[in-house]
Amino acid sequence: MRFSELKLSAPLLTAVQAMDYLETTPVQTEAIPPALAGQDIIGCAQTGTGKTAAFLLPILEKLHHTQPGGKGPRAVILAPTRELVIQVTAEARQLAQQTSLRVVSIYGGAKMRPQIRKLRRGVDVIIATPGRLQDHMRRKNVNFKMMEILVLDEADRMLDMGFLPDIKNIVSRMPRQRQTMLFSATMSAPILNIARQFQTDPVSIELELATPPKAIRQALYPVHKHLKTQLLLALLEKMEVSSMLVFTATRQEADIVNRKLSEANISVACIHGDFRQRERLAALEGFRAGQHRVLVATNIAARGLDIEGISHVINYDVPEHPDDYIHRIGRTARAEADGDAITLVTPDDEPMIYRIEHVLGHKIERKILPGFDYDVPIPSWAKPSAKTLLRRTTKKQSLASRWRSMSGGRRR
Q1: Per the confidence metrics, is the pTM higher than 0.85?
Q2: Domain of 331: which CATH number?
Q3: 145 touches 93 (CB < 8 A)
Q4: Which residues pair with residue 204 across a beta bridge?
């Protein structure tokens, strides 16, 4: 469907054309018409499928045609991370640039006072993380008397991050008569439970799980945990890397990798939740501009990143969900370019690799880096106790058994 067929108002169509949007993506085709009609939506769609415009365009269209009777907000979009809030805000402002609609972003890591000033001047659309929005609610900087539309973006991530109590508290302050749109990468039982609590007869949109572009060359590099950093350095030395995005599981791992790469005279930047917002933005802009060859990021901090020209993605730590794996490696091979996605795999990671390969429908090639010494012994301080080994073995056997039973013992 072409955007011109959606019966959008002239200011929004102008903005859409300026952003070079011509035809709708599948999620936009399915979501925009019922959303424009005021129906609740529950959508299963990955980042990068165009879901942001799928909920922004109906919101902006509806608000553009009605005059505010107070300071607002009239629409609230909740997202799990500040990076995603910033990204959604940027797109909202581009789409609303020909209108008089006021869009404000609310997130932690930024100063409260400028946010308070914007809220007191009046706002049509708030895009916020749940924690910071609650801070403003407690200070009575915002109320929802004029609320018409609520969006929960990446609801599965918000559940993973423990935001459900915050979301319930926020929604309890909102009018019951409202339109609610929920988007998630998975249509799991907890997500459906949220939908039942917050929505009325929602239109269900479930797209197939995105698969990685064929231009991405995927590989697994088995390695013991104590040799992961050395293997990463060796890969950087032997491969033609123009720009590399490295994902770690924790902030501590990100700091360690960042320090080791810096000590090896590699230009590197790092982002995770402990950095101030201006530091994170500076790191991202430096990576985009080519000032840093490598960007190290935690999974949560990297959510919503949109950077062109990444030649390599390294899963320094295996992600906790198959959809996270697909989301991560999709950061390379954009705009029809080639790209490499490499995952460092320890023996403890094998159950998750089995899950990822099950979702992909094929095995991922395993490789060994020629010339790398895989036989360096484990330092005494890094050796796990017998109790830890037993717990890991039991967990690994349990996970592998569970996934074999769920898949009938076969990969798709």
Answers
A1: no
A2: 3.40.50.300
A3: no
A4: 42
